[in-house]
TrEMBL record:
This is Bm6546, isoform d. GO terms for molecular function: serine-type endopeptidase inhibitor activity. Gene3D superfamilies: Pancreatic trypsin inhibitor Kunitz domain. Residues 36-86, 110-155, 204-254, 304-354, 409-454, 507-557, 619-669, 728-781, 830-880, 937-987, 1042-1092, 1097-1147 form the BPTI/Kunitz inhibitor domain. The gene is Bm6546. It comes from Brugia malayi (Filarial nematode worm). PROSITE patterns: BPTI_KUNITZ_1, BPTI_KUNITZ_2.
Length: 1152
């Protein structure tokens, strides 16, 4: 319901919307009286909120702090509001049209109903914008417009200034606006006004809001995701505070993250700043980012230098990290949470981020692959024909260098540069031999070999001659291979550089076209596409992946065999067959063929759609064993039996009716098992599958009952009578096996015993007398529930508080009258352990804890407890005697009953000699305990044991004070008093100087005073100044000391004091004995003379209580002079003088 206050005066409405800023509701007054004449009202809340009020005396608006509660109308959120209303300023009444918004703006989106979708617009009252939605054609509400323009015209909030809660206040910046406001910069001066701040908090964390209107204003906002200030186009109205005129304002207000990745390093939530002078301030894994200003000179994370962390979680995500030691990206498995930044989605991103190289080439730049990665190493060479592989000390300097030459062995020795000190070999042309040398690691030439064999020496025979070989006669030893050159001189045994003398392993080598210009037709195995490809070999310096014919290559290397029966497999990256693990990885029209190996697990063409509407096309395909040598156990769907059956698949040329598991087959095709004892289950029309059900839901309908199987798919609706009370008459049926689960325990109703019993159900073909739980069985069939923990004999005997049970039994109090019966027990009920029982009850009970010797509370579930179960703590303590004493047994009377004592007195407590009274919480624990001591004040404080929380006092012998503590009721000691006074009287003798009891504090402590702080005494108490601080206390008595007679007191202090003599009307000395005096007792004559005349002259005039007529004089404090009055002869007070002179001499000089 929308309440429009259209009849309210403007000032009353303005006050109402003003107070709503702090959740303060005020019913608008119908009076037209302005609030400016009201007084300032701070209120009585707990806050200090700056507000403004109009000072009618000074005739101006002034600042004050409002408490947050209970204000009047003279309370404004800003000085502008106060001045506009109270200092004669006028303000536009544009905001009055806010009151006239149509009710359609308040209604929520309603799409209506129907099948026709029409593009419409509605006003989102939460976002304050018009948004598009799909209208269904029928019904809906009035918040429904055919165009965006119509919506914006109909909703007044879209055409006014941005703030709907206060009048327009022009501004030039935030400093010109009030508290909790900001300056909204619009398209014109009319919309550059003060708006209320958002209650959501920091402006930099507010979401981007382009606003509404027709303006196109270049603005900037802070993006919390990218941590950067970004431009946007503002429409002029209804924006928020995350709206800046330029990038500089945005960056000066909102922190911009200068780091390329991740957040800057923080200590206790504060960003750590570094400096160019101290870049080492940053911790490991961070570097000092030198920005343009101190705010951006911070420690940024270097992902490549951080340790790899597998993280936490249950995921297994394939990721890559940069290995600093090997200077390469390596794979690892990420657990999903709490890793470091050294964590990349793939090798390409890792290489692009972390890999850096140093140019080791003598001349020119090296050839590099994707993300600057090297193209060669000691085991492979993918360099172009114009480049050669320079093997450096680290992977960064192992690159393809330009300038590949043919006369490698004629090049001179080149030691290179660097600090690597690598052992290498070069060919010395003069002595025609390979010589070792130390290589610096960079800037060498091609006459540089890792081993002596690598430098090119062919295998020699026993006579020192080069060993000749051929393809038909491979005479090379195991560490050499037969190089087939262009002529006989180049067909010889070359050294094996990487143990690739096995032909099948040679297939892993890259293409090596060599050099020499021979132009020989050869074949090599492309390991990427698993095919043999022709190439032209130059005749020299090739490798073993070099075959004379295609047949020789295919016989040696594992070429790809197409496993698809209906065409070529889908090709992926690098022209390799697209491998897969599911259909989702294949393109449209392809399906994932799962072969015997990964090479035959590829995307094959001819995918068919599978759904109920299309007749489950996959499931209609015939079983196909395929071709090949594999023997794979697979599953197919048999349309005749509606079952998934196993078959042997040979690895290729199959179809989609081929599943890895029986479950996968059943998930795809409509296979089901008939679990009913008679007939077939109720089938769903749409899926032709059995209708699934659950016990008690009545989802099967008439003439069917719910068979409760072992797996969800076998909870089927079977034909027969429903599972109701008739099922309780059926015999037990254990069913038959076959379900994909082990037999389980179930419940059936035994009609003969009128109880539910367990049995083992095999899973299928059972009947209705089959329940998952005992509760389901009991809810269907009438059973007798035995609440006792032992077998009971019939008939049952009920009991109550008034009806006792026979010997050997106890009254079991259950949650109902049916479970409140006499149950048998043996032995001592108090020694039995606590038993919560079973059931759904939550009953508060008590049991005796024999280990602690106390009764404790517990929650009883309702049945199958034991005899150690009492309705109240008192019943428990009566049945099981409690020993509250710390040592020994309490004193017992002649009939073996514990002696109850009185703990409220100090010495007479009813206990015999050698016993003391334990101050428990009741008569069961307030008993006489052995081990009494003469001076309990020296004992330590003991909180004791039990469940009680009793406020008690003990004497602290070190501090010589009585302190409060919480006593648990038992196992304490004698240093335990019911009150502080009892503690003080027992442990620190207190000499009472008063006639009556001295004043005490709220905590029960004696209230002391002194000559300089007599005012601490409460009303009707006066400060007694004794001979010691202990006797200087607040004593009871009237506060007028001059009207009481002289009292020397008692004691032997012999103190010189002064008192006021009413007869002599002067202050006289006397000797005070120290205690039990009265108020007419002054430390000096001056104090006495100053106090008493003043006191008596201030007394009211009292004529007395007799019938005589005597002229007397008294001081009238209203007239401030002595006047005559008629005294009756008795009674009255001291303001009574026989002559005017006496009155004036006593009271005339006081100057009242």
């Amino acid at each position: 319901t929308v309440h429009h206050h259209w009849s309210l005066p403007i000032d009353s409405y303005m006050l109402q919307i003003t107070f709503q800023q702090y959740g303060f509701s005020r019913i608008p007054s119908k009076s037209t009286t302005k609030p400016c004449s009201l007084p300032q009202q701070i209120g009585n809340g707990p806050y200090r909120i700056p507000r403004w009020y109009y000072n009618s005396v000074r005739m101006r608006c002034e600042l004050f702090y409002w408490s947050g509660c209970c204000a009047n109308g003279n309370n404004f959120p800003s000085i502008h509001n106060c001045k506009r209303l109270c200092e004669g300023f006028s303000f536009p009444k544009l905001f009055t049209r806010f009151l006239l918004q149509d009710a359609l703006i308040i209604t929520d989106l309603d799409q209506g109903h129907g099948k026709t979708l029409q593009a419409r617009y509605y006003f989102n009252k939460y976002a304050k914008v018009c948004e598009q939605f799909d209208y269904r054609g029928i019904d809906g509400n009035r918040n429904n417009f055919e165009s965006l323009q119509e919506c914006q015209q109909q909703c007044p909030g879209l055409k006014t200034n941005p703030s709907l809660s206060t009048p327009q206040i022009p501004c030039f910046g935030d400093s010109t606006c009030g508290v909790n406001q900001f300056c909204h910069f619009g398209q014109s001066q009319l919309t550059t006004v003060c708006c209320n701040r958002s209650p959501t908090g920091d402006r930099c964390h507010q979401l981007l809001n382009i606003g509404l209107g027709n303006a196109f204003l270049q603005r900037w906002h802070f993006n919390t995701n990218s941590k950067h200030c970004e431009p946007f186009i503002y429409r002029g109205l209804q924006g928020n505070e995350n709206n800046f005129l330029n990038q500089n304002d945005c960056q000066m207000t909102c922190f911009v993250n200068p780091c390329a990745a991740g957040e800057p390093y923080q200590i206790q939530g504060n960003t750590m700043q570094c400096s160019p002078a101290k870049p080492s301030m940053c911790p490991n894994g961070y570097y000092c980012h030198i920005g343009a200003e101190p705010q951006t000179t911070v420690c940024c994370g270097n992902a490549c230098e951080q340790q790899v962390d597998q993280g936490q979680g249950n995921y297994q995500l394939q990721r890559w990290y940069w290995n600093i030691a090997s200077q390469r990206c390596m794979p690892f498995v990420y657990a999903g949470l709490k890793g470091t930044q050294n964590n990349f989605l793939n090798q390409e991103i890792c290489d692009r981020t972390c890999y850096a190289f140093e140019n080791p080439c003598l001349s020119g730049k090296p050839q590099q692959g994707v993300n600057n990665r090297p193209l060669c190493s000691s085991t492979y060479n993918n360099c172009a024909i114009t480049h050669w592989c320079h093997i450096g000390a680290v992977p960064q300097t192992t690159v393809c260098c330009p300038g590949k030459g043919r006369a490698v062995c004629k090049l001179p020795l080149a030691f290179g540069s660097g600090d690597a000190n690598l052992k290498r070999w070069y060919f010395d042309q003069n002595i025609l031999n390979c010589i070792p040398f130390s290589y610096g690691g960079m800037h060498g030439n091609q006459n540089n070999f890792l081993t002596q064999q690598q430098s090119g020496n062919p295998e020699m025979d026993s006579n020192g001659r080069i060993k000749i070989c051929s393809k038909s006669l491979n005479s090379c030893s195991s560490t050499f291979w037969c190089h087939i050159g262009a002529q006989l001189q180049t067909t010889l045994c070359c050294p094996d550089r990487g143990n690739f003398y096995l032909e099948s392993t040679a297939c892993q080598l890259p293409l090596a076209i060599g050099h020499g210009g021979a132009n020989l037709q050869r074949w090599y195995f492309n390991n990427n596409i698993h095919k043999c490809v022709p190439f032209i070999y130059d005749g020299l310096h090739g490798n073993q992946n070099n075959f004379l014919t295609q047949q020789e290559c295919e016989q040696t290397c594992p070429v790809f065999v197409n496993p698809c029966a209906s065409g070529e497999a889908q090709m992926g990256r690098g022209e390799r067959p697209q491998q897969c693990i599911s259909h989702n990885q294949c393109a449209n029209g392809y399906w994932c063929h799962v072969g015997a190996v990964s090479q035959t697990t590829v995307c094959c063409p001819g995918r068919v759609m599978n759904s109920a509407a299309q007749g489950y096309a996959i499931c209609q395909q015939p079983v196909t064993a395929g071709m090949g040598n594999a023997n794979l156990q697979r599953w197919y769907y048999d349309v005749n039996t509606r079952q998934c059956l196993s078959f042997t698949y040979h690895g290729t040329m199959g179809n989609e009716n081929n599943f890895i598991s029986k479950k996968a087959c059943q998930l795809t095709c409509p296979a089901y098992v008939n679990v009913c004892p008679q007939g077939i289950p109720l089938l769903e029309i749409s899926t032709n599958q059995p209708r699934l059900c659950a016990f008690g839901e009545n989802s099967c309908g008439p003439k069917y009952w719910c068979h409760l199987g072992l797996v969800p798919s076998e909870y089927q609706c079977c034909p027969g009578t429903e599972t109701n009370s008739s099922a309780c008459k059926m015999p037990l049926s254990v069913g038959i096996g076959g379900a994909p689960a082990s037999p389980v325990n179930r419940w059936y109703y035994d009609a003969a015993a009128s109880t539910c019993k367990t049995f083992e159900y095999n899973g299928r073909k059972g009947n209705q007398n089959n329940f998952i739980s005992e509760a389901d069985c009991a809810a269907t069939c009438t059973v007798f529930v035995n609440p006792c923990d032992r077998t009971v004999t019939l008939p049952l005997q009920t009991c109550s508080n008034s009806e006792a049970c026979p010997s050997g039994t106890y009254c079991h109090y259950g949650s109902t009258s049916q479970t409140t019966i006499c149950c048998p027990f043996e032995g001592n009920r108090c020694s039995q352990p606590m038993a919560r029982g079973i059931g759904s009850g939550s009953l508060q009970r008590w049991y005796y804890n024999s280990m602690k010797g106390i009764c404790e509370m517990f929650t009883y579930n309702g049945i199958h407890g034991n005899a150690n179960n009492f309705l109240s703590k008192e019943n428990c303590e009566i049945a099981c005697r409690i020993n509250p004493c710390p040592d020994g047994q309490p004193f017992s009377t002649s009939n073996s009953v514990y002696q109850v004592c009185v703990a409220s007195t100090l010495y007479i407590n009813g206990c015999p000699n050698g016993y003391w009274c334990n101050p428990g919480s009741n008569s069961f624990t307030t008993v006489c305990c052995p081990g009494a001591v003469n001076n309990p004040c020296n004992l330590p404080m003991v909180v004791g044991e039990g469940n009680e929380k009793l406020q008690r006092y003990y004497y602290d012998a070190m501090a010589r004070v009585c302190r409060v503590f919480t006593y648990h009721g038992m196992k304490g000691n004698q240093n335990n008093f019911l009150s502080q006074t009892a503690c003080q009287l027992r442990c620190r003798p207190l000499e009472n100087p008063c006639i009556g009891q001295p004043a005490t504090t709220t905590a029960g402590q004696i209230l002391f005073c002194s000559a300089i702080n007599k005012e601490v005494c409460p009303v009707n108490f006066w400060c007694h100044i004794g001979s010691t601080p202990e006797t200087s206390v607040c004593c009871p008595g009237a506060t007028n000391p001059c009207s009481v007679p002289l009292s020397p007191g008692s004691g032997n202090a012999d103190l010189s004091r002064w008192y006021y003599s009413a007869d002599d009307r002067e202050c006289l000395p006397f000797q005070y004995n120290g205690i039990r005096g009265n108020q007419n007792n002054f430390l000096s004559q001056m104090e006495c003379s100053r106090t008493c005349p003043e006191q008596l002259c201030l007394l009211s005039i009292d004529k007395g209580a007799c019938s005589e007529h005597q002229t007397r004089y008294a001081f009238d404090r209203q007239q401030n002079q002595c006047i005559s009055f008629e005294y009756t002869g008795c009674g009255g007070n001291l303001n009574n003088f026989r002559s005017l002179v006496d009155c004036i001499s006593t009271c005339g000089q006081l100057g009242f």
